[in-house]
Amino acid sequence: MKQPEFVPYDDYERRPEGEMAARAERFYEQMQSRRTVREFSSEPLPPGVVEKALRAAGTAPSGANLQPWHFVVVTGSETKREIRFAAEEEEREFYTRRAPQEWLDALAPLGTDADKEFLQTAPVLIAVFAQTVGQLSDGRKVKHYYPMESTGLATGMLITALHKAGLACLTHTPSPMGFLNKILERPKTERPYLLLVVGYPAEGAKVPNISRKPLDEYVTYRS
Ligand code: IYR
Q1: How much distance in Å is there from the Cα of 111 to the middle of ligand 1?
Q2: For ligand 1, what atom is nearest to the CA of residue 110?
Q3: For residue 2, what pLDDT is reported?
Q4: pTM (2 decimals)?
Q5: Cβ pair 104, 98 in contact under 8 A
Q6: Are 86 and 179 in contact, with CB atoms under 8 Å apart?
Q7: pLDDT of 136 over the 90 cut
Q8: Which CATH code is given to the segment(s) 37-202?
């Protein structure tokens, strides 16, 4: 078994106490303006932004540090078209047959439907996969731990990085998403986690008039 090896944590930056709350507040304000967008412009993205955001995603904590995620960045119009048509097929089933009324009622304030034009309009789609097993350089397989949780953390960081860079995104979850493995040629050991649609909001884009829960509804303090 490999022996643990430790190095000093030189990158840690201790902040002056007076600055900490202000930094947290500033970050909250920046995140507060993030909205899920469903109307995208087709304007291409400046080079390097997505790559840098993906680097931030790759810093996420993960089960046994096995980093069980894979991101496929799709920019080609033919692949986007294929993804759109496959997603819409599943979504039509979802909206007309699979979804129970309770689910449709919960979605009603978002105004979503089976039409997924944004999958073709947006300049970039990032298909996120959670790897249930990984491969060592010699080809041997290693089991991954908490792949879904780890990939969720990485995806959250990706969304945050894209927002802070000035881009909008949509966490799209067509269900089931098996078609992504097929179209993007990913192995069965990778579970499609979600499809992130990335770009600029379309001119005049609207977002649903919904609100976020106040803190006291989702936080409890205990001594
Ligand atoms: N996958 C469908 C339905 C949908 C489900 C949830 I939960 C949402 O938050 C939004 C949509 C769709 O993408 O339309």
Answers
A1: 10
A2: 10
A3: 84
A4: 0.96
A5: no
A6: yes
A7: no
A8: 3.40.109.10
